[in-house]
Amino acid sequence: MNGAKYFPMLFVLAWLGLITLNTSACANTPILEEWRQLLHFPHNANTSSVLGDETFFLAPDGHHNPESELQTNLAYLRGEAGPEKQLKLRCNFPLRVRFLQHHYAHTIPTLPHVICPEYERFKQNIPTKKVAIVFSSYFMESPASAFGHTFLRLSNSSSSSSSELLDVGVSFGAIVTTENPFLYAYYGLTGGFQANFTTLPYFYKVREYNDFESRDLWSYELSLSEAEIATLRDHLFELRFSSFRYYYLSKNCSYYLLELLELARPSLRSKLLSRLPFYTIPIDTIKILSPLVSKLSFRPSARTRLQQQKLPSSFLSLSDSTKAQVPNDAATIDALVTFLDYKYAREILNESGAHYEWRKQLLLKRSELPSPAPSPLHQAAAAAFAAPHLAHPPRRAGIAYAAAAADSEHPWHFYYRFAFHDLLDPPSGVPPYSSLELLSLHLQLSKKAAPSLHEITLLEASILRPFESYEHPLSYHLQLNSKRSSLGLGMALKIEYSYSEILLFPMIDLTLTTHQHQQVILALGPTLNLRLRASSYLSLLASYHRPYHLQHHPTPPAPLLTLEARLHLPHALSLFALYSSSYSSSHSPPLLLGLHHYF
To answer: So what's the pLDDT on residue 21?
Structure first.
């Protein structure tokens, strides 16, 4: 009983010790992991934060010492550094303050009410009822968008196609500082660009992607609560002055949007990014988020709408306001308005010019006519068929056996492709008339020697735009190969019947071929290509190239004929047969039978 008088002092000392324990001995705890996430430290890595700017950290060493940053933030919030710094923390880092108040409430005094005008304006402008991740379709004309793009759409309503224009778009993108294509590629691959989050009215994103670039938009609504979306919003406010290093194939929009969503819902932490491959493209984000998707909506571009409409034979003459009268047919007027939206998007959006005035006349007449029957069901089916989440995995590996007995030295062949899609891959969810392949390898497996690299392709891309009644665009093909590189220019024609399609695309190809003694031969000649798609499971591609040397060479070039058939199976597998007359029997067989796996 004699020690009873010391009990109050011991209690105070124990309480102070508990405070010290709770604020400093939190290393390797879930609390510190959550704190590290708020500061953008890589998960389970003793490295610096990916954010290096001084405005985001309060401690001098905060960008590489999360414990020091925690102690400094607590000191600011308690007022130990003065009222100005307390106000700075409370008005600039609302999510950080909530974290500290939740986990260290017993160490923080009652805080007076403060008014933060900038934060209040941000809250008023950013809706938090619903959130969707939007996929903007593949845009082959721009290297930065060749794999598509993802961004968030925040909404306060049910967001019909008209009211969603009032939503807010949240995008992550690089701050491009050069127009040089070689520097652009180098900086994009090596982290030479800074990147940040931006918020804009959604109609600006629709104007940029849907109207100017004719890209379809798919919105995948996510099942996040309003409180979780508010957490996302508050962290966006905290990041408004911060920048990240941008890596085109890894730390891109896909990566940082998933990081943002992990932070918004605690149960998702470390569960989204851990499923993301190191090298990633936007479609990976959509597939990883599929368990959270509650609704899918589709906003087709003007080009897509135009391709689905039945156009009269006199369509082009009707599109010229100086030569045509306003038609009386509702379907024709709808097609004309869509054509003007597609062909003269900037003029229409600027609300000036002859085409804008012609469009006004058409809409005035259209308002007097009854609406046509609803769109055919096949249009909805076509939209679902093209939804990006249905796309095959981008990476591919394959093995083939030489069916020709003459090639006994190299009976097995191995193939690997880093990304993304060719003209014979499964067609769902990918551009139907384009291909883009990065880093493809072909190894020969010999019985007597180690595997040898037969061929490496750095890049192969095709942009095929079939002729339409309203436009006759050019088509392109580019290949950068260790043995044969080419650049092709031509046209594309398509014939559709039910679910089958024939695509014919003749081209003029300029080729560079490496011969013995590293001699480079330049050749020019026509190439006739034909793709037959019998169904979504079976396709055939035939190509015949007749080159002519542009410089003297003792051996005339031989015609090149290749035939490939592919049958798609369940579980991301495809059987293929490949015949090529360009192969020499001493190096490769004319016929290969094999199996591809997509992953």
So the answer is: 38
